[in-house]
């Protein structure tokens, strides 16, 4: 059997990874400014993470959600405290797209309404519900339908026009749009959405799958605007590579037996991984590190003449560069540095592990400077 060939691949075969570095089968060392798509939060194979997962594996890795699993409660309590949402409830699944599916369903169950509002260039995952609110038509099959209207970001009047129709269960928005190329909604737009959602009995869903878990210098990107969301979706950095996702749910949502469900979600091993992540984030002050090194990177990047625009916060940075696509290719082939792309190929997406150091930031900056000089 062969693999279903859907991924364009770099000709690189990683065999091990430690901290912010990835090593391939030829012994080549790569600096990771991509984190495997914003997934590596505390650094690759962090010793505490490895130990906690190994300990759990020695005891019990999995049993279904038909029994008491105390490590789920431990995770919910720790996540509640770390995120500033201590009175919310947690539903555990295995990925970002599943978090979105459950968030959309909950909004609809809760309001008894069918429609979700979403924004231009939004990406919320590739399952049916996720695709319905994802503005990349090529990802959609005929089965998915194409009746979604995507609203311009930061346009409150457009949102209110739709809400007035009376059929809107919820509004979904990324804390910072990732796939779009690191696009941040204005703080007053989020404040306005909060008010409109309350006024029209709609649920405000913040998708923090990519922008959450300390990446932007706050636990959640939307916390910069001072608002509280009704539902928040998380995944990626939550497990540092171990598949886990979560839905943080306001206490006003009523749980009932069988309303949601999953086989693997919240298994012992995934919870151990997610707890290790939160423990390391706290112990090593990784959210503060995000702010400090993000500010440093942004300041230094802005000094480079060919940098046209910088977006984002903390360690979620979009860099619009003259010839950005070529620079990105050369960073990887010549300097052995992974960065991310975006829907605009001239944007570099920087999503390093949150324990990146100034030394590594300087390595990236030197490499970018060299590449833009060569191209000038
Ligand atoms: C904002 C956002 N939401 C949802 C998803 C889907 O997550 P997953 O790939 O884990 O299903 C992604 C993945 O890139 C994302 O960036």
Folded structure, characterized:
This protein has 376 residues and is α/β, with parallel strands linked by helices. It folds into 2 domains: 14-46 and 285-375, Aspartate Aminotransferase, domain 1 (Alpha-Beta Complex); 47-283, Aspartate Aminotransferase, domain 2, CATH 3.40.640. Helix content is 36%, strand content 17%. Strands 4-10-9-8-7-5-6 form a 7-stranded mixed β-sheet, sandwiched between helices. β5 (115-119), α5 and β6 (150-151) form a beta-alpha-beta unit. α2 (47-59) packs antiparallel against α8, α3 packs parallel to α8 and α9 runs parallel beside α11 (358-375). The radius of gyration is 21 Å and the shape is globular. It binds pyridoxal-5'-phosphate (PLP).
């Amino acid at each position: 059997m062969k693999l279903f060939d859907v991924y364009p691949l770099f000709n690189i075969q990683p065999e091990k990874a430690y901290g912010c570095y990835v090593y391939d089968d030829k012994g080549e060392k790569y600096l990771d400014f991509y984190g495997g798509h914003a997934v590596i939060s505390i650094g690759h194979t962090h010793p505490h993470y490895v130990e906690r997962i190994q300990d759990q594996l020695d005891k019990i890795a999995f049993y279904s959600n038909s029994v008491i699993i105390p490590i789920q409660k431990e995770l919910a309590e720790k996540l509640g405290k770390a995120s500033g949402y201590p009175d919310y409830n947690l539903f555990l699944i295995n990925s970002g797209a599943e978090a979105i599916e459950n968030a959309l369903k909950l909004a609809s169950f809760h309001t008894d309404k069918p429609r979700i509002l979403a924004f231009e260039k939004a990406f919320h995952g590739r399952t049916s519900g996720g695709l319905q609110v994802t503005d990349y038509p090529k990802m959609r099959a005929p089965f998915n339908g194409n009746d979604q209207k995507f609203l311009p970001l930061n346009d409150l009047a457009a949102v209110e026009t739709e809400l007035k129709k009376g059929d809107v269960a919820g509004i979904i928005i990324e804390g910072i749009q990732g796939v779009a190329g690191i696009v941040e909604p204005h703080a007053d737009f989020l404040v306005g959405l909060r008010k409109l959602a309350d006024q029209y009995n709609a649920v405000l869903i913040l998708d923090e799958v990519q922008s959450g878990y300390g990446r932007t210098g706050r636990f959640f990107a939307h916390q910069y605007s001072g608002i509280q969301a009704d539902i928040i979706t998380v995944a990626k950095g939550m497990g540092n590579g171990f598949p886990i996702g979560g839905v943080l749910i306001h206490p006003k949502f009523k749980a009932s037996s069988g309303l949601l469900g999953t086989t693997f979600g919240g298994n012992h091993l995934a919870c151990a991984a997610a707890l290790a992540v939160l423990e390391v984030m706290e112990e090593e002050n990784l959210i503060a590190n995000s702010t400090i090194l993000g500010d440093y990177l942004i300041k230094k990047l802005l000094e480079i003449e060919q940098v046209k625009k910088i977006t984002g916060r903390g360690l979620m940075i979009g860099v619009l560069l003259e010839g950005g696509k070529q620079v990105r290719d050369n960073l990887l082939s010549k300097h052995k540095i992974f960065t991310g792309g975006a829907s605009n190929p001239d944007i570099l997406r920087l999503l390093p592990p949150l324990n990146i150091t100034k030394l590594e930031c300087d390595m990236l900056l030197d490499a970018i400077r060299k590449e833009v000089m060569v191209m000038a």
